[in-house]
Write a structure and sequence with these properties.
about 350 residues; alpha/beta; TIM Barrel; 9-stranded parallel sheet; two-stranded antiparallel sheet; about 45% helix; about 15% strand
Length: about 350
């Protein structure tokens, strides 16, 4: 099959909300044919991730799901490995584990995100616990005394060094660098460098492109519903460094200002301080073009086609606004139906 003929796949990510509502979202995602449900982890602003993941296991039968993403700072690897392996017993073959350096979960505790060496050790430790039940973490033996099932590990990556690490050691990558052709090509290049260092190919990894998404009667209306997620995307691009992230040089100081002023206690809050921040700094149009699939059904299909042409085929759609079921139905009926 030629690359241009590869059909796209779509997952959906929900910020964990009240249990009954969250369960209904997951069930609807499965009914509508989504391939993945991603579940963010941020204890200060969302409901508990592992409890929410358990609800996903209980209320679905087919769709893959799992944390997107936990981090080395707030969850010890033995605790994380035990939790994810237990989930895999509830839903064999359907659970994945996403791991990143830490974002709002970490900042809302006044802590710092993990460094890449810490991320490497954390991923390695969890993999060893899942494969053989024991490992050494930060110089201390850790173990799981029962035989856990293996769960594929995905690394969330934005910058080139994290992408190279993901290409080297992960089973899959959650790519948060954006959907402009230059972003996609740079991401594939860096993941490929890491994969080659471990004797692998990019094709050996399961790649998911994380993006905000909204379909509406107009592009303006769609973007309006995504503002809090666009603000989060701006902060992602500015975190640690802007180097190697394909940010126009004239915008780099503006992105640094976003990072300095971002309110983690209002992370993904509609109409909050972070929304006002990206409006004040004039970043909305750039972020909407880079970090979202948004607009009318035809707008969305055109943006997907552009991303496919650049090499992206699997998209995890973050839905942070209220009408999640309405979005999934309209997306399935007016966007996906014409792509099949």
């Amino acid at each position: 099959m030629a690359q241009q003929d590869i059909p796209p796949k779509f997952g959906v990510a929900f910020l964990p909300g009240p249990p009954a509502e969250f369960s209904a979202w997951c069930l609807e995602a499965e009914v509508l044919g989504f391939d993945l449900v991603g579940i963010p982890d941020s204890q200060s602003v969302y409901r508990e991730n592992i409890v929410s993941s358990t609800l996903a296991a209980a209320h679905t039968r087919r769709v893959r799901f799992g944390p997107m993403v936990i981090n080395p700072i707030t969850r010890h690897p033995a605790v994380a490995a035990s939790a994810i392996a237990t989930l895999a017993e509830l839903a064999p073959g359907r659970v994945i584990l996403g791991i990143g350096t830490g974002d709002s979960a970490v900042h809302n505790l006044g802590l710092r995100p993990a460094k890449l060496a810490e991320l490497r050790e954390y991923v390695t430790t969890i993999r060893q616990l899942l494969l053989r039940g024991e490992s050494v973490y930060q110089g201390t033996p850790v173990r799981i005394t029962w035989k856990p099932p293996y769960v594929p590990i995905y690394i969330a990556a934005i910058g080139p060094r994290t992408m190279e690490l993901a290409g080297e050691i992960a089973d899959g990558v959650i790519i948060l660098n954006g959907l402009l052709p230059e972003n996609i090509k740079a991401s594939l290049t860096h993941i490929g460098v890491g994969a080659a260092s471990a004797g692998r190919r990019v094709e050996d990894l399961d790649l998911w492109w994380w993006t905000s998404a909204a379909v509406a009667d107009s592009r303006t209306a769609a973007i309006e519903s995504l503002m809090m997620s666009l603000a989060s995307g701006a902060k992602h691009l500015a975190q640690v460094t802007t180097d190697g992230k394909q940010i126009p040089s004239e915008l780099e100081p503006t992105f640094h200002e976003v990072m300095g002023r971002y309110r983690f206690d209002q992370h993904q809050v509609p109409g909050g301080a972070n929304v006002r921040l990206i409006e004040e700094l004039g970043l909305v149009d750039y972020l909407a073009e880079r970090m979202a699939i948004a607009g009318s059904p035809n707008d969305c299909k055109a943006q997907i086609a552009r991303a496919q042409k650049a090499g992206a085929y699997q998209f995890c759609l973050l839905v942070a606004f209220a009408n999640k079921i309405g979005f999934m139905r309209r997306w399935s009926e007016s966007v996906v139906a014409d792509l099949s």
